[in-house]
Amino acid sequence: MESCVLSRDSSRDTSRRGIFARTRSVWRSFQSSPIIHRRNRLQRRHSTEITPKDKKGLKKNAIRSATSPISTKPKEKEFLKKVINRPRGIIKKVSIATMLAYSKDPIKKPIILTQDKEVRKHAVDHFKSLQDYMGDTKSGKHLRERERLKKAVELTYVGWQKSTFRDEFYMQVIKQTTCNNKPKSLEWGWKLISAYLYYFPPSLRFQGYLEGYLYKNKENKDVNVGDVPVTTYATYCYDRLSKMVTRGAKHGQKKPTEDDIAHTMHLPFKKSLFGATLEEVMDLQKESHPNNHLPWILPLLADKIVELNGRSTEGIFRVPGDIDRVASLKVSIDNGEYANEFPSQDPSVCASLLKEWLREMYDPVIPNDVYQQCLDNCEHANYCSSIVTDLPDVNRLVLTYTIRFLQSFVKDDVVVHTKMTADNLAMVFAPNLLRCQSTDLQVAMDNAKWEMTFVRTLINNLDTNYMEGVV
Q1: How many Å is the Cα radius of gyration of the chain?
Q2: Using CA atoms, how far apart are residues 80 and 322, in angstroms rounded to an integer?
Q3: Is the pTM of this model over 0.85?
Q4: Distance from the Cα of residue 21 to its chain's centroid
Q5: What pLDDT shows up at residue 343?
Q6: Is 227 exposed, middle or buried (0-12, 13-18, 19+ CB in 10 A)?
Q7: What is the SS3 assignment for 84?
Q8: Per-residue model confidence (pLDDT) at position 324
Q9: For residues 401 and 329, which has the higher predicted lDDT (pLDDT)?
Q10: Are 256 and 159 in contact (CB under 8 A)?
Q11: d(CA 135, CA 189)
Q12: Do residues 275 and 360 lie in contact, with contact meaning Cβ atoms separated by under 8 Å?
C-alpha cells in the first residue's frame, strides 16, 4: 500500500513538472511575440523624453517645441508618473511624452489621475470644447472670432469658479500646445493659457510643473512656430504665474465677457492700465507722465465725469454706461487714443470705466492686510482716517483722491440732481475699494454691509484738503 501511494505521488509530481514545463514554454513564446516585446520595451522606457517614434511626422521646429515641456529631471519625471492617468494593460500602455503631445483625437478620460467624480465626468467634454476653440475640429475650423472668444469665456469661467478642474484644464492645454505644428491652433492655445493665468492659478501640487513648462518655452527661442511668438506668450505667463501663486485667483463672481477675455489675450504684447498693480501702473507712466503722483487715468476720468455734467446726471455711478461703449473707451485709453478728441461724451460711460479700473486692480486700493481692521472699526472716524494715513503712499493718494472726488457729489445742490447720497455712493464704491477674500457668498454678503459703512465714514469724515492740486 505504501509503495502504491509513493508511486501515485511520484506520478503526480512528474505530471506537475510537465505542466510547469509546458507553461514556461508557452510563456517564453508569448514574451517573444512582437506585441509583448513592444510592451516590455515601453515598460523599460520610463524616461519621459520624446523618442524617435514620437517625433515621427513632426516638423523640425515643432519637435524642438515638443522637447521643452517634457523634463529630464528625475523629480519632474516622478511627478508625471504619479499624476498622469496612463492607460493600463498590456497593449495600451503608452509613454508619458506621447500622452502630453498634441492630438487631433479626443481623449477618453482625464489626463490627470483624480478621484473627483465631477472632473472625471466633464474632462472629456472640456477637451472637446478646447479642440473646437483651437480650431482642431471640423466645426472649430470655421468659428468666427466672436464665437471663438465665447468658447474661451466658457472654458475660463469653469476653471475660475471650480478649483478642482484647474489642473486638468492646464494639463489639457499644455498637451495641445506641445508638438503642435499648426500655427493658428498653437497661438489660440497660448492665448488661452494667458487667459487662465489672469483668472486662476494651478494647485500647489501642479505649480512647479507648469512653471517648468513656461520657463523652458520662455528660454528656448526655437519653440516659435511660424509667426507665433511662443517665447513672448511664455514670458508673460511665467511672470503672471509668479504673481498668481502669491495672490491667488482673481476674486469676484461676475462672468467675464468676450471683451474681457480678448483684453487678457493681448496682455503679453501690451501692458495695460487695467488689471495691474498700482506699482506697475506708476512704472508704466514714468515716461509719459513723469511728474504725476497719481495714475493719470484717475484724474482723467474724474475730470471727464465733471466736464460731461456728471454732477447733474441722475443715478451717476449707480446706473451703468452702455457696456459696448465702456469696452471701447477702455481700449481707446489703453492705446492712448484720446489726445485730440475724447472717445466718449457720456458721463455714465466714464463713471463705469472708473469703477472698473478700481475693481480690476490686481491688488485692491485698500490692501487685504488691513481689510479686517476696516470692517472692525468702520464706524470710528478717527480710526478709519488713521488706517488711510498708514497705507503705502500710492494707495493712500489714490484712495484719498477718490474719496475727495466722491465728497464733491454729496453736496445738497448736487444730490438734488443725482439722487446719490453718501449711502448710495458708499454702496456703489465699497466693492471697488475693498475686496473680500472669502469665497463663501454668505460671508461676502455679510461683510458688504460693513464695507459700505467704512467707505461712508470716509466720505463723511476724511480730511482730503491736502489733495487739492495733486495729480
Answers
A1: 30
A2: 48
A3: no
A4: 61
A5: 74
A6: exposed
A7: strand
A8: 82
A9: 401
A10: no
A11: 10
A12: yes
